[in-house]
TrEMBL record:
Protein name, per record: Small VCP/p97-interacting protein
Pfam (any one): SVIP
Highest taxon, organism lineage: Eukaryota
Claim: Oxidoreductase is one of the keywords in the record: no
Keyword annotations of the record: Lipoprotein, Myristate, Palmitate
Organism of provenance: Glossina brevipalpis
Basic and acidic residues bias (residue ranges): 22-69
Amino acid sequence: MGGLCSCCSNSADETNLMPSPETRRRQQLEAAERRRHENEHRGIKDLERVRQQQLRSEQKQRRLEEAERTATGPSTLKWQSN
């Protein structure tokens, strides 16, 4: 009879399946951060290469802007024909 009662009642381990709200909140935050990180890097195999390409693109844009500024400013070169 004792075997029948022990399987029908809830043990102490079964009643405490839900973690505390703080633990649950922390786990949800960790899972959200992990999903965000995975979504940011989806499809990118070489992250360092992408960063280098972005840096080169920014440098090229700065050089173009600098060239435009100097072209519209006062010219220091003068053309002379003999």
